Amino acid sequence: MDKVLVITGGSRGIGLATAERFADKGYCVINLSRQQPALTGITHITADLSDINWPSRCGDALLEQLNGAEAITLVHNAGVLAKDTVRDIEAETFQRVMQLNVIAASQLNQLLLPVMNTGSSILYVSSTLGEKGVANTCSYVSSKHAQIGLMKAGCQDLFGSGIHSAAICPGFTDTEMLRDHVGNDAEVLAYFAGLSAFGRLLAPKEIADTLWFCANTPAINGSVIHANLGQLEN
């Protein structure tokens, strides 16, 4: 086995586009998510990352798939976007968002690092909200800030290992998550599109291309990469 992509949440949106990108480049692709992607030629392992005990259910199966891997690109893409505020957020909701968006990534790091060789990478799909805040997305904003912190801490902890890491922060991307969040409201989507210098939403493929670049560019180790078409500052 040569190079392997392990990705979470590869069944749709940015995750699916990324799985396709790496598969087209000859990578073996392993996806972890609840739903199987509509993509042939990859390995799917059913996993509910919102359950803190998920490693005990599918960790061994994942490691078996990685025997002999030359290098592994690990992309933490799975995530959940909830509507909540600092005034009303429920502890259980906050806990679930942090588990899926942050803690599961840490668990997966610990599982895979023993088999990740020099030339491997750990990439986090964060958000422009990983470095700023907006109203009504308290848990999501908090978790995306935490993702960047996890990446930066991990970069220091892996000093000298030959494994590089980065956080990729997409702007408004035309995904099912975004459309679900705004109720597929055309006016809201048009407003978000207007916040970029190009007057449009990003395509998932553009973020997949950015992840591909980061996976193959150790110079960006520890970096936060904004991919947002030049988003309006406010």
Task: Give a verbal description of the structure.
The chain has 234 residues and is α/β, with parallel strands linked by helices. The chain has one domain (3-173, 203-227): NAD(P)-binding Rossmann-like Domain (Rossmann fold). Helices cover 39% and strands 17% of the residues. The chain contains 7 helices and 7 strands. It has helices at 13-24, 54-65, 91-112, 138-157, 176-181, 186-193, 204-215, and strands at residues 3-8, 28-33, 43-46, 71-76, 121-125, 164-170, 223-227. It has a 7-stranded parallel beta sheet, sandwiched between helices. The mean pLDDT is 92. Keywords: Oxidoreductase. It comes from Oceanicoccus sagamiensis. GO terms for molecular function: oxidoreductase activity, acting on the CH-OH group of donors, NAD or NADP as acceptor. This is Short-chain dehydrogenase. Belongs to the short-chain dehydrogenases/reductases (SDR) family.
* Radius of gyration of CA atoms, rounded to a whole number: 17 Å
If strands are numbered along the chain, what order do they take across the biggest sheet?
3-2-1-4-5-6-7
Class by alpha and beta content? alpha/beta
Helix-strand pattern:
EHEEHEHEHEHHHE
User: How many domains?
Assistant: 1
Average of per-residue pLDDT values? 92
Please state roughly what percent of the residues sit in beta strands, choosing from under 5%, 5-15%, 15-25%, 25-35%, 35-45% or over 45%.
15-25%
CATH fold call? Rossmann fold
Number of helices: 7
Count of extended strands: 7
Shape verdict:
globular
Low-pLDDT parts are: none
